[in-house]
Structure prediction request, 56 residues.
Amino acid sequence: MMYKDEIIAEVWRNRDAYVKKHHHSLDEIMQDLKRRQRKSRLKLVDRRRRRPKRSD
Prediction:
C-alpha cells in the first residue's frame, strides 16, 4: 500500500487546475507566467551563466 501525501496531492490538484485553465497549452501557460512576472513587484535575479565579453 502506497502512502498518500496530502500536500503532494494538493500540489497536483492545483497544477492540474492551472493547466486546465490554460487549455493544456504551453504557449498560454508561458504567456500567463510572463504576465505574472511583469506584474510582480519582486526583484527577479537571472542566475544563468554570463559569457565573458569578447574583446575584438
